[in-house]
Design a protein that fits this description.
308 residues; Jelly Rolls; Arc Repressor Mutant, subunit A; 5-stranded mixed beta sheet; RmlC-like_jellyroll; AraC-bd; Tscrpt_reg_AraC-type_HTH; sequence-specific DNA binding; AraC-type DNA-binding protein
């Protein structure tokens, strides 16, 4: 009998770092065979990850949706997303990885819109194909990052911060993301609030399920939090909370053998029957129906794409 899958592995940045655990930039091939074998099992990262596939292709399953990523593409993975990857034999490229703390606190407001665009969006849409000129420009940036990491001369961390910011700005421009048409100072503030809200959901969705709980932590009124959420993402704060709970349930149903009752308790529901009704209300499938359909590769109802 196969061993029961009852958890999803969490990977920390030092497991990929060879020297500096605060920032990683590396070719995929130099990460070694363990990296490729490890990534074929479902797992989560505790850090932001950028993959640049230079040649070959990979099949990438994020949550319950599978994507084929071909040569010369960038894709972006936010912390705590569940994913697994199957690489072709001739794949090569780069991996860039960094935690929240790597970006300077004073840059949080300026980078919030970019992070929301590339890493935190309503579906896994941050796959960017580069043309020949863009490839050259990104190659220069990545090679400069690798040189800074190797030589570690005075001020190299500042240089890495600047290079990473420039990399993300260029990627955001190519993706064509745009902020809502509001005055600049309010856009920066609202983006920062929204990103903080999304991070709070990640930390608390097991036990905080009301918009007012998060608004209190952000020191704003629930109606304002809803307005900011709708302005920047198109859906309310309550929908973000609900979607995050459903997404985690989907992750457990797809990647583990836990029962619906066990998953309900993991997600902070005291009544497993209420959890099942909650899940079916917003996905049009019972937990068991979702598990069977997702594992069979059939389209799933309700939330057709993962909500990050």
């Amino acid at each position: 009998m196969a061993e029961k899958r009852d958890h999803i592995e969490i990977v920390s940045l030092p497991e990929y770092a060879t020297a500096d655990a605060s920032f990683v930039v590396s070719t995929l091939c130099s990460l070694g065979p363990d990296f490729f074998a490890h990534n074929e099992a479902p797992h989560r990262h505790e850090f932001y990850t950028i993959y640049w596939i230079k040649k070959g292709e990979l099949t990438h399953t994020i949550d319950t949706v599978t994507h084929v990523v071909k040569r010369n593409t960038l894709f972006f993975l936010a912390p705590r997303q569940v994913h697994k990857m199957h690489f072709s034999e001739k794949v090569d490229g780069y991996m860039i990885a960094f935690p929240d703390a790597f970006m300077c606190l004073q840059e949080a407001a300026n980078m919030a819109g970019i992070q929301s665009s590339l890493f935190i969006n309503n579906q896994f849409s941050s796959v960017i194909t580069l043309d020949a000129e863009q490839e050259k420009e990104f190659e220069v940036i990545v090679q400069r990052m690798m040189r800074e990491m190797q030589e570690k001369e005075a001020g190299y961390e500042t240089a890495l911060h600047s290079l990473l910011r420039y990399f993300l700005v260029l990627a955001s421009r190519i993706k064509g993301a745009s902020m809502a048409a509001v005055p600049e100072q309010f856009a920066a503030h609202n983006s920062s609030v929204f990103l903080h809200f999304k991070n709070l959901i990640e930390e608390n969705y097991h036990h905080l399920k009301n918009v007012s709980d998060y608004a209190d932590q952000l020191h704003i009124k629930p109606v304002l939090l809803n307005d900011i959420s709708k302005q920047l993402s198109g859906i309310t704060a309550g929908e973000h909370i609900r979607n995050r709970i459903i997404l985690e349930a989907q992750r457990y149903l797809y990647n583990t053998d836990l029962t619906a009752k066990e998953i309900a308790y993991k997600l902070g529901f005291e009544d497993p029957h209420y959890f099942s009704r909650f899940f079916k209300k917003y996905t049009n499938q019972s937990p068991s129906e979702f598990r069977d359909a997702a594992r069979a590769g059939a389209p799933v109802n309700g939330l057709s794409a993962p909500i990050l």
